[in-house]
Amino acid sequence: MSLLNLGEKIRNTRLKCGLTQDKLAEMVDISTNFMSLIENGRNMSVETLVKIADALGVTVDFLLSDTLDMQSDVLSLQISESVSTLNESEKMFFLNMIKQYKNIQK
Known about the structure:
- The protein is mainly alpha-helical.
- It has a single domain (3-105), classed as 434 Repressor (Amino-terminal Domain) (Orthogonal Bundle), CATH 1.10.260.40.
- The chain is 75% helix and 0% strand.
- 15% of the residues are buried.
């Protein structure tokens, strides 16, 4: 993946998360100007890349991959993170709800 593609992926993910460049830069503890440079293909440290991934709620692997369906990947990560905070009975409740929903849609 080129740095330009990485920057575009960071930008697109940031937008899908509803964050401004200013807010993401603040979360990562870098200047807004540097965030703009990153989104336009500027090199960054591994530490900065990890901080950006954490702030966006995605993995570094996700940012570095050439995934075409980014929206689906972000949504899947958000669902996984939400479910991981539930206890077992809550997980079973939502699993049953999903199954019922799918049956209704058929």
